[in-house]
Amino acid sequence: MSAGTSLVVNGQAHRLDLDARTPLLYVLRNDLELNGPKYGCGLGQCGACAVLVDGVAARSCVLPLQAVAGRSVTTLEGLGRDGAPDPVQRAFIIEEAAQCGYCLNGMIVTAHAFLAANPSPTEAEVREALRFNLCRCGTHVEIVRAVMLAARLLAEDRGG
Amino acid sequence: MTRQAPTPPLPVGAALLHGAVARPPQIDWNTSPPQSARLLHVDADAARALPGVVDVVVRGDFVGVVATTAEAAAQAVERLRLRWRAPTPGPAAGSPLPVAVLAERGDADRVGAVEVEAEYRWPLAASPGSTWATARFDGDGLMVWAPVDPAAGLRAELAALAGLPVDRVRVACIEGDASCAEARHAAADAVLLAQAAGHPVQVRLTPAQVQVGDGYLFASRVRAALGAGHRLLAYEMTTGAPPPSAPPLALLLAGIASPASQIAAASRFAAPPYAYPGMRISAVATPGAAPLADPAPGIAAAQVFAHESQMDALSLAAGVDPVAMRLDAIADDRGRALVRDVAARAGWTGRSGQRPQAGVASGRGFAYAGVLEADAGIDAGHAAWVVDVSVDLSTGEIGIARVVVGHEAAAPDTALPASASLLEGAARAEAGRLTADAPAFDAWGLATRAPDDAGRTVAMPGPPQNPTVLRGAGIAMLPAAAAVANAIFDATGVRMREPPFSAARLRAALSAPAKKPFRGARLLAGAGAGIAAAAALLAAVSPWPAPIAPVAPPPPGFYSAQTIERGRLVAAAGDCVVCHTAPDGRPNAGGLALDTPFGTIYSTNITPDLQSGIGAWSYAAFERAMRDGVHRDGRRLYPAFPYTAFARVTDADMQSLYAYLMAQPPVPATPPETRLAFPFSARPLMAGWNLLFHRNAPFAPDPAKSVEWNRGAYLAEGLGHCSACHSPRNALGAERGGKAYLGGGHAEGWDAPALNALSAAPIPWTRDALYRYLRDGYAPLHGPAAGPMAPVVEGLSALPDSDVMAIATYIASFTSSGSTDTPAAQAAAIRQRSQSAAATLTGAGANLFAGACAVCHQAGQGAPVFGEKVPLALNTNLHGARADNLVQVLMHGVSTTASSQVGAMPGFADSLSDRQMVTLVEYLRGLYAPDKPAWGDVAATVARVRAGGK
Description:
The structure holds two protein chains of two kinds.
Chain A: E1 5-9, E2 12-16, H1 24-31, E3 50-53, E4 56-59, E5 72-74, H2 76-79, H3 87-94, H4 104-117, H5 123-129, H6 140-157
Parallel strand pairs in A: 1-5
Antiparallel strand pairs in A: 1-2, 3-4, 3-5
Chain B: E1 17-22, E2 27-28, E3 35-36, E4 38-43, H1 45-48, E5 53-59, E6 62-67, H2 70-79, E7 81-85, E8 99-105, E9 114-124, E10 131-138, E11 141-146, H3 152-162, E12 169-173, H4 183-197, E13 201-205, H5 207-210, E14 216-226, E15 232-241, H6 249-254, E16 278-285, H7 296-318, H8 322-329, H9 333-345, E17 360-371, E18 381-392, E19 398-409, H10 420-434, H11 469-473, H12 480-492, H13 503-509, H14 520-526, H15 531-536, H16 561-574, H17 576-579, E20 593-596, E21 599-602, H18 619-628, H19 643-646, H20 651-662, H21 685-693, H22 707-719, H23 722-726, E22 745-747, E23 750-752, H24 767-776, E24 778-779, E25 783-784, H25 789-796, H26 801-812, H27 823-840, H28 844-852, H29 854-857, H30 876-879, H31 884-892, H32 914-928, H33 938-947
Parallel strand pairs in B: 1-13, 11-12, 15-16
Antiparallel strand pairs in B: 1-6, 2-3, 4-7, 5-6, 8-16, 9-14, 10-11, 10-13, 14-15, 17-18, 18-19, 20-21, 22-23, 24-25
Helix pairs in contact in B: 3-4, 7-12, 8-9, 16-20, 22-26, 24-26, 28-32, 31-33, 32-33
InterPro entries (chain B): Ald_Oxase/Xan_DH_a/b, Ald_Oxase/Xan_DH_a/b_sf, AldOxase/xan_DH_Mopterin-bd_sf, Cyt_c-like_dom, Cyt_c-like_dom_sf, Cytochrome_c-type_DH
Keywords (chain B): Heme, Iron, Metal-binding
Protein name (chain B): Nicotinate dehydrogenase subunit B
């Protein structure tokens, strides 16, 4: 029926002839082989599947493909290059903010969107921003520290 | 016009930001310049906090939002808290209305031997429809794309707005949208927003945001006097002047004087083309009327209609032939020559003078229009018409027997149909339009939408040659209305003073006894009809209609592509495919199970398969099924198939629908047989049901209502069969009318909310909100279209904006507004109430909400999430009398919302137990509708929805 869905993923234009109701997460992982976003709950609750849509954090497991038609999607892979992570990713590495790491895609992507809107947050604001990224690991403290560090790294990058 | 550089491509995708605007609550158009309410205070914190919002732009009284998506921008506008001061009132009521004299010569007040005074009216209608524009600033200046006539005036206005010289402003006309004139407003909004954001911005406006009027009657009072020897003496005309066309609203609101002249364009036709020694043409302000998008063509037609009807009446009063009188009175040689030529070609020998008392009367009319200098899109030239009509005196139906048109243009290179046959065709169409009964309520426009940014290619024409035939042809069509009216007068002695000259109006004027619709059956229904009553009536009607013999389906090519295309729109408006398609089945092959209180009914195969479908159905059989609810084989159909609504469809639409269905690929598929329990299994009983509840009568427009309302009523009552779900039904499954009409019903396991004054919507539905809901599948102050309403929105996507707006206009006429607060203020108050409720409600429900719902539905918490933080406090489903819709959505989610990019939600049937579901539903009710009583027996609803889950 449709002539495919056009979207831009990590700067590259795609035209996908798929059912427009396919969840974006499946398209990214299965069709575009981008495995940064993870399948967690499948209900938009945990945030492991987060990506950026036009710069805003999105839960890709509940987002039908048609919702991102004509939009720009950025996955974890699109934040930095291999060997050259972006400041948020660098901060997470420096702070060793991972246990099993399954939630980290969501943490990093959400932090990225959050810091774009709030470049110098307080620690309380960081906790509030990540409250809907569900995880049971032992590195919550490190994750918050990583986001605070990321804010400083981003400021340095801007020449601040 | 010099050749322009090629139009740069329209920015799309990530290169484009989206704008939305907040308009002042009032604009007083009676002052010059118009006065808008003044902006006192802007609180934009809540708007800025929304994800995707880039900027909130305030300039003077102009307020707009720029965001990464159109939805985010629109939602942010709803979150703006704005305080306005009403404009200083214009002329006080009772004070004399300002009069402007447009033209005056000699003594216009002289009293003559023969005098005729009369009023003529002309409906000026706004062209409804959404509109859009994109603006971009770069090193070269300002570039604007819009479906707009890039007249120099608009460029000057946009240049003034942007503070640029005119030569650094370019406007590219993008074809494919009807709402040309309103696009000026979108263009100006986009310019202000793009300038502030430093990024290309697209703005889409709904008709309400354009704030043009939705039309009114343009009245002209005329007095003409003849002296001795039938010499012209004096002519006076007073018209209700529409406000001058509005400057783009952004200019007005930003406080920038428009450099373009805003004088109404039709003044060329204010004076008649006759040599009256005394003449005065004046205009009286029309209090309260908002400017129309582009009233000029309508005003020109209205003025020519008044002049030429008056000339006819005057010549009759003087006992002179109307053509001879014009030949004496026209000052211009070429005009006289054209009138003489057209009269000769038509074989004009005067009025017919015969008026039969019954049967068919025929008559002939003449009219002329002339202008010496081209102006305001109307070419200089002359036109004369002779029209022959035949009138059925019992029905008032008017047939156009012949049209003779002569046209002489001073400038030969207009867009006038070049050949005589094209002109004749245009003239016939125009004459037909004027006599159409209930104009256009079953006319199907072309679907036009603003370009999506989803990579759709857009035609990029150069500067348009002549935007519409009407405008280019201008003068040639102007005498049409008067010529037809004069011919009707000749045939019947009835002077029609307001187009359209419909059969209903003419019949009323002829005082022919109108046929009363059959009402007896309806009264019976009120008397508590039961099965016994229905059975008792069986003797009176034939319970077994005869079968209609199978026929071979029409061969390919039998119906024109146009007819099939029209049928496609009819089918889309009727949502055939929604009920006639099983889950995952082939379209229209039937088999969907419809649960009714009387048992399960399976929809049938309506593809043209010979055995299992309707391939062997003749048109007569198809029409009988659609209007009377009888299968080809004579079986009665159950009214789950809404033939009660489809009976209202016009013949032309019915034929087109048949043509369309027969042109589809046949699918062999036999759906399960419908088996209802006795007595409902006895299909012949439906004969009694029909006698009680079914009135097989085509739609009759209400002449007291607007054309748009009637179009909406036709779509909603007929094809759209809104009331099939949205009206309550009586014990025998018949829709209840009167005050219960659209009072809410139940279908497919969902509540169909009341659309009338009983609506539980916390913020009353407006025409604009209904339009957005039906067009986009989402209304910001209400929520998305889900459940059985989602395919309805999908079906409507085939229809043009004007049709969706017509439906919204019709439905909105049943709602009640209740509060005087602005919707945004009501929304803020309701959200506030939920926030305080959230503080007191804790426990398992709150925990479930925080884990499963809050990430998307709790605004102001967590990081921004793409899509909507849907304001559940405003959703009708939380406020209704039953929990059904909320439970449906929680169980099954919202899988698609047709054209919308918002509203997708996962279902929680597999992750929440019944007990958790009940806890969550009760929590949501307490949180979002604290003023409403708790729902009774939510557990039963949850169990039922889970059992019947799709």
